[in-house]
Amino acid sequence: ALFISAPASGQGKTTITASLARLLHRNGKTVRIFKFGPDYLDPQILERGSTTPVVQLDLWMAGEEWCRLELFRAVSKGKADIILIEGAMGLFDGTPSSADLAAKFGIPVVLIMNISAMAQTAAAIAVGLRNYRDDFTMIGVIANYCGSNYHAKLVRDELPDDLPLLAALKRTDAVKLPERHLGLVQPSEMGENFTEQCLIAGADLLEESGILTHIDRLKHVTFHPPSQLIDTTTISSKQLMGITIAIAKDDAFSFTYTANITLLKDMGASICYFSPIHDDSIPLEANALWLPGGYPEVYAKELSGNINMLLSLRSFHKEGNPILAECGGFLYCMETLIDLHDNTWCMTGLIP
């Protein structure tokens, strides 16, 4: 297992984690990725790298025992050869932080650093972060955005022997994923071929760096089942048996947690998906609706122009069917929405 962290956001954690997963996958490994913290966007990229669903781990939202159970399941049920966990923001940011999760489960940390504007100072920062606390283990550094082999050498020579440079990745646009407000652009918007080519290029860079040698030397981390049983009474009772929940899923609405959908299925619900942008109506079999967050402000024109879907939603609501709307989905339920260019568009009008 490996916990991939950084001094801050914008260092390349998601791209490198997904690329490493792709490299391991094409070398025959079963890889399971987790994302630390309540993130909707990074897991979409990470899933492309590992080819398996990504679950978020958060000690505050879900609790230690639930996190322990998910890690144990990944190995025992998912048969993962290696677990990768991508941290959030900087190593010590937040309460709890990435370092807290790594320390709790004894997962070694690798520090990713964007060294484009520094050299030997990168080593000083890495050593400082490693020594800030003594309850976790940092095993090495990945230098991202290296200008040359000599640039990487300046960092490597300043790092202590017990904190080696595991990989030095050159600057290239071939692995650069576009960003906007809230984070990375969704793979569906970039195009699957673009995302795939980025992951292939990233995996190639990592392989050329020789990182697999270090991965092979990783010490085994044992994940144990929870020390106390998690109450599954409400799950086993199948309270949602016979209920079909339609979930909005397209470029405008995609902010869902895999764990929540799994829970709904465990409780007996059937799940189907629909696109408020492209489809004409809510699925006929649906008797409940979930409108999650996303980017309705980016696709306000398309949402407003799909008159048939607006009418279908209004009819569904008028019939008294339950609707869960959150974040961007809640905005979709308003009468109007102002987009990023100050244009006003009609929405469903479910909430006057």
Structure description:
The protein has helices at residues 13-26, 42-50, 64-76, 98-105, 120-132, 149-158, 187-190, 192-209, 211-216, 233-236, 258-266, 300-305, 307-318, 328-332, and strands at 2-5, 31-36, 55-57, 82-86, 109-114, 138-146, 165-170, 179-180, 183-184, 244-248, 253-255, 270-274, 288-291, 293-294, 323-325, 336-338, 344-346. The chain has 2 domains: 2-216, P-loop containing nucleotide triphosphate hydrolases (Rossmann fold), CATH 3.40.50.300; 233-346, 3-Layer(aba) Sandwich (Rossmann fold), CATH 3.40.50. It starts with a strand and ends in a 6-residue tail after the last strand. The longest helix has 18 residues, at 192-209. A 7-stranded parallel β-sheet has the order 3-2-4-1-5-6-7, sandwiched between helices. The protein has a 4-stranded parallel β-sheet with strand order 12-10-13-15. A two-stranded antiparallel ribbon has the order 8-9. It has 352 residues and is an alpha/beta fold. The radius of gyration is 22 Å and the shape is globular. Helix 6 (149-158) links the parallel strand 6 (138-146) and strand 7 (165-170). The chain is built from 14 helices and 17 strands. This is p-loop containing nucleoside triphosphate hydrolase protein. Its cofactor is Mg(2+). Keywords: ATP-binding, Glutamine amidotransferase, Hydrolase, Ligase, Magnesium, Nucleotide-binding. Pfam families: CbiA, GATase_3. Residues 244-352 form the CobB/CobQ-like glutamine amidotransferase domain.
